[in-house]
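*** Residues and shapes ***
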Amino acid sequence: MFPLLEIRNLTHYFAGLKAVSNFNLTLYSKEIVGLIGPNGAGKTTVFNLISGLHKPSFGEIYFKGEPIHGKRPYHITEKGIARTFQNIRLFSDMSVIENIKVAYHYKRKYGIFSAFMADKQFQRHESEIEDMANNLLDMFNLREFAEKKAGSLPYGQQRRLEIIRALATEPEILLLDEPAAGMNPVEADQLLHTIHDLRDRFNLTIFLIEHQMKVVMGVCERIKVMDFGETIAEGTPEQIQKDKKVIEAYLGEEG
């Protein structure tokens, strides 16, 4: 099977300090893979390197065989990789549905003249965007908040909105940076089912960072573990739970 995403010897320095060291990963279509480790382990840096926010000091990243390391974030989004952030980055003063429409519009099918004239092509495309946005809101039980300002939503709902906005770019790979952060136990349980549903409904490959072990162990088929920028383990949830290095570096802290 041909890999969808391949990361080879990814290494990154901040002011001479090695944040990520020789990180390797292969993702295949429709996998759900987790990345865990203590705070400061380098997990979000890996996401920033994949999504183009940082350029790697060394190493290579390939998406469907094409090198994407060092490309700008919008180029990587156009290729088919979308992400959420550990710190929510919504347009707080815009409505919930406007946040989603912004993400859809980068694939707009009309030109400036059509938009200016509000012709049939413009109106048809805007209607399609409205329908797609509402369908996503229905999936996440947020339809009733469509016209509310995004910044007025509770934290857990803002998390869900950010996932929706990433989905609106129609990605093949979805990077989720702590999607359960700020969610109560009921919302976290719902997220487990949502992630599986998203993978199956949208044919997504999902790579996620998460601190809530119930979410990681319940949803991921493979898990990679980092500590101080180094990979210390990789395997199935069952293998990771029994790994002594993982217990010492991460899981032991949870107990």
About this structure: The chain has two domains: 5-80+171-254, 92-157. The mean pLDDT is 89.
